[in-house]
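Researcher: Please translate sequence to structure tokens.
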Amino acid sequence: MFSREIPDDELDAILKAQVEIPRIVMDMPERRKIWWAFRNHVYYHSDEERDPEVIKGLIIQKLERDTKRRAKAIDVARRDQK
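Model: Translation complete:
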């Protein structure tokens, strides 16, 4: 496995860019996963997709689904209390 220290200027560039578009922070071919930084969080996806715009869309879709799922769960819990 290959590892290296990221120079400060490279890390700063990744941190600034990941606010708008996902950036690869770790590639794990042996596990077929790529780890992406986006909006100060880290996500993983299969190594088949490497287009940051696609990854951004997939992450946003997941966040939207999670938000709807949580809202529905709260609604169900509140209805049960009545």
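Researcher: Any highlights?
Model: The longest helix spans residues 52-80.
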